[in-house]
């Protein structure tokens, strides 16, 4: 799996200007160098570890900034230390990213953003084969089945920028691609496990990093 990401936002309480003070991670890649990222939110999550060949590049970008490029290397992700900011629990949240796939995973999953390593499964925004979804755990050791995941159909393609958004408001989960809701609302009252895992970007589930 190879992917490029640009303008990543994570919020536990919703998106848009009304909730900007609740944004816990904002990575527009502005001013990024080959192996560093600068969080533009007020939380200042600026400690990131780049594994394998992961780096920021200017060859592909969504806007006028570099993008984060991640290949199938081992290890093959970028991660930040654990933080209470990543603990979703039963709260509202919005996670969004611009993503461009160079290849699509076939027999594996590609994580966009997650705290997802046994026995600290928390939540995982991912591409499973060609299908974008979100999975979560309530115990740290279980993965919720397909009936409680949020799916977008398997028509994602390579070499095209997509804007993916995962949201929960109250007990309603929704997933959007390019501003259009994918599939029906999913209603669930699960409380996400409070994971002690690092925050992964771009990991593959092949190996120990995810």
From TrEMBL:
SUPFAM superfamilies: Concanavalin A-like lectins/glucanases. This is Uncharacterized protein. It comes from marine sediment metagenome. The lineage of its organism: unclassified sequences, metagenomes, ecological metagenomes.
């Amino acid at each position: 799996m190879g992917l490029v990401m640009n303008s990543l936002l994570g919020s536990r309480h919703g998106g848009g200007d009304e909730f900007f003070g609740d944004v816990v991670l904002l990575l527009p890649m502005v001013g990024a160098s080959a192996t560093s990222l600068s969080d533009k939110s007020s939380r200042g999550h600026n400690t990131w570890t780049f594994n394998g060949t992961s780096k920021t590049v200017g060859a592909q970008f969504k806007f006028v900034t570099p993008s984060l490029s991640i290949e199938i290397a081992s290890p093959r992700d970028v991660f930040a230390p654990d933080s209470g900011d990543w603990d979703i629990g039963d709260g509202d949240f919005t996670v969004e990213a611009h993503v461009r796939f160079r290849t699509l995973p076939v027999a594996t999953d590609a994580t966009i953003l997650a705290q997802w390593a046994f026995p600290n499964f928390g939540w995982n925004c991912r591409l499973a084969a060609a299908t974008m979804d979100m999975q979560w755990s309530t115990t740290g050791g279980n993965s919720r089945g397909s009936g409680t995941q949020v799916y977008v159909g398997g028509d994602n393609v390579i070499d095209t920028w997509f804007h993916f958004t995962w949201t929960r408001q109250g007990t309603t989960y929704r997933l959007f691609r390019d501003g259009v809701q994918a599939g029906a609302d999913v209603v669930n009252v699960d409380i996400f496990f409070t994971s002690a895992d690092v925050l992964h970007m771009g990991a593959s589930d092949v190996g120990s990093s995810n």
